Amino acid sequence: MRLDLSLIEIFCIVYEEGSFSRAAAKLQLSQPTISGHIKNLEDSVGARLFDRLPRQAMPTQAGKILYRRGRAILDEKYAAVQELNKFLNRVEGSLTITASTIPGEYLLPQMIASFRMKYPGVNIELQISDSEDVCQRVLSGKAEIGFVGARFEVVGLGFRHFASDTLALIVPNNDEWSSIESLTLEELSLKPFLSRESGSGTRTTFEKVIGPALDNFNVVASFGSTNAIKEALKAGLGVSVLSLLAVSSEIARGEFKTVEIEGAGPLHREFFMVINTNLTASPIADAFVECVHEGGGRKSISA
C-alpha cells in the first residue's frame, strides 16, 4: 500500500469539512477533481473512505483510522516546515486568524495590511465568528491566533490585551429620541431592544452590567452580527448597546446618537489576543503577534 501525501492532505480537508463541495471551495479546485483524488486514494487503500450522502461525506471506519494517522503525519510535516523556516529566518506561508465581529471587522483589516507590507510572502485567512467560537477554534488548532471582545476562563488558552473600546446605548437620531439624553436601566428594559447572540463579547460585557442575562429586557430580535443590528436600527426596529468603534461613522453622519444609561457608568471593555498555550507558535504567528504589540491594534475609542 502506497499513500500519496498530497492525497492525504486532500482527504483530511474533505474529512474536516464534511463535504466534497466545501473542500473543493477551500482548495479552489473543482468538485469532480476532489472526487477523483479521493477515489484514487480509496483504490490505493483498498477500502471506501467516505459514504457519499446528499450534501455530506460521512467517513467510514477506515476513513476514521486514516484521518487519525493522516492528520498526525500532516501536523508533523507542518511542524517540520515551520521549524525550518524559523531556523532559516523565513516568514512566508499561510496564517489562519479568527476574530469576533468588532476586532475582525474594524481593527484587523488595517493590521493585516500593515503586516502584509512587511511580509508579502504571507497569505492570511481571517475567519469571523463570535467570541466563544473564536476560543474554540484556537483551542482546537483550527486557527493559530484569535481576537475577542471578552475574556473566558478556558484551560489551554492565553489572553493578551491588545486594544480597548467603549460600549454605548445607540438609538436612531430621529424625532422620538431627539430630546432624550439618558434612560434608567428600568426604562431601557421596556424599549424594543436589539441584542447580539449569546456568546458575543458585546453581549457578555453588557450583561455584566445588568445581570446574568437579558431576560427582563424587551428583546425584539437577536442578531449574529453588528452590521445586522445597525441596519435594524436604521429601519426603526429598536435600540441597542453597541461598540463605538462600530458606529462612529453613523454617529458622525448624524444617523445615530448615544444615550446615557443612568447608573451604569462607562461601559469600557478590552479586546484580547488569544493563543493556544499548548502549541508552539509558527514563525508567521510570532511575527504577527510582534506586529500587534508594535501598536497595530492598540486602538481606543470612548464616548
Layout of SSEs?
Layout: H1 5-17, H2 20-27, H3 31-45, E1 50-53, E2 56-59, H4 61-87, E3 93-99, H5 101-118, E4 122-128, H6 131-140, E5 145-148, E6 157-172, E7 182-184, H7 185-190, E8 193-196, H8 201-210, E9 219-223, H9 226-234, E10 240-243, H10 244-252, E11 256-262, E12 267-276, H11 283-296
Parallel strand pairs: 3-4, 3-5, 7-11, 8-9
Antiparallel strand pairs: 1-2, 5-12, 6-10, 6-11, 6-12
Overview of the structural elements:
- With 303 residues, the protein is α/β, with parallel strands linked by helices.
- It has two domains: 5-87, Winged helix-like DNA-binding domain superfamily/Winged helix DNA-binding domain (Arc Repressor Mutant, subunit A); 91-303, D-Maltodextrin-Binding Protein, domain 2, CATH 3.40.190.290.
- The chain has eleven helices and twelve strands.
- It has helices spanning 5-17, 20-27, 31-45, 61-87, 101-118, 131-140, 185-190, 201-210, 226-234, 244-252, 283-296, and strands at residues 50-53, 56-59, 93-99, 122-128, 145-148, 157-172, 182-184, 193-196, 219-223, 240-243, 256-262, 267-276.
- Strands 3, 4, 5, 6, 7, 10, 11 and 12 form an eight-stranded mixed β-sheet that branches.
- α1 (5-17) crosses α3 (31-45).
- The longest helix is centred in the first third of the chain and has 27 residues, at 61-87.
- 32% of the residues are buried.
Provide a brief overview of the structure:
This protein is of the alpha/beta class. The chain folds into two domains: 5-87, Winged helix-like DNA-binding domain superfamily/Winged helix DNA-binding domain (Arc Repressor Mutant, subunit A, Orthogonal Bundle), CATH 1.10.10; 91-303, D-Maltodextrin-Binding Protein, domain 2, CATH 3.40.190.290.
